[in-house]
Fold this protein.
Amino acid sequence: MHQITPESAGWRYVGFSLYRLIAGDTVAEVTGDREVILVMVEGKAAITGAGQDWGVLGERMNVFEKTPPHCLYLPNGTDWSATAETDCVLAVCTAPGKGGHQARRIGPDGITLTARGKGTNTRHINNIAMENEDYCDSLLVTEVFTPAGHWSSYPSHRHDEDDFPRITYLEETYYHRLNPASGFGIQRVYTDDGQLDETMAVSDGEVVCVPRGHHPCGAPYGFEMYYLNVMAGPLRKWRFVPAPHVEWIMERDA
């Protein structure tokens, strides 16, 4: 199990953990003061939560099938358990819960793979619970498939100030997968003043934390990139400001 907590990340809102289960394995958690979205990245699991039996969730056996994910929202103050029907990868996305939403299945119905961007900035999105989906108190969750040789989370942008409607403060994690798995992707996290400027080669299964700044990703020729994004902050709205040196690209392609 990989786990990122607000404490371990040095921030206040986003939590992310990942279970790689073998058929027959069972995992269980309580949500406490946090709301949760369970994402069946790969494989199938029988899930109970918030006092209900949700049956078997999951369909795609390989994330790069790009079919809509099966997910489950659970509010704070509940618990859940999952028993793997097949080998599976289960992502646990968390943020502060306020008791404002009921447990519910999310997807596969209602999730459609959608193209975004132009040229080699084209990528494909499975929105799980973004701003238009009023499923959560705090969480914003989406999947992104970036074709080989393309860029995403680009033109570079940031959402690290609490100044709505100009910009919102949202912490963010990226859970990366590569196809073929032997490949790598590139992610840069940097601020306008250069105090934070890290460029990382990400391998299959790695997680990148974005506490602030811009955070573009690149997929090298020959390697397709997937990532699962989790965002949360004081306001469940996604408003960003582009990096000054790429603002012209965003305006041109609008």
